[in-house]
Design goal:
Length: 116
């Protein structure tokens, strides 16, 4: 609700447990949006969890805010729309769309401050 990130010790524990499961060990894994900080990456490396490669998208904060704030979900289908870049074509769908409580400009900026 506050827009803050889950504490490192909790999220790292969850990620480590998941990556040690049989399917990840045998088939590999892909992390999307994690690690978010150098401290998280260091802790994972110290635990022996090291990625083969990374993709870092350097996007200006104002673009990230725009993308997140415009995001809405259809509670019936679960489909995610963006009001500018991928709006629903149907007015009935548009009327029922919901925004996540942490997808406000204020809360996105809190997350970005923690990232930087």
């Amino acid at each position: 609700e506050s827009g803050r990130l889950v504490p490192d010790e909790i999220i790292i524990g969850i990620v480590k447990d998941r990556l040690n499961e049989e399917d990840c060990v045998k088939q590999g894994w892909l992390l999307d949006g994690f690690p978010r900080t150098a401290a998280q990456a260091t802790t994972l490396a110290e635990a022996g969890i090291v990625a083969d490669c990374f993709i870092f998208l350097n996007v200006p904060d104002e673009i990230l805010v725009e993308r997140v704030v415009g995001r809405k979900t259809d509670p019936v289908t679960g489909k995610i729309y963006h009001m500018e870049f991928s709006p629903p074509e149907d007015e009935e769908v548009k009327a029922r769309l919901e925004q996540r409580s942490d997808d406000t400009e204020e809360k996105v900026k809190v997350r970005l401050e923690q990232f930087h």
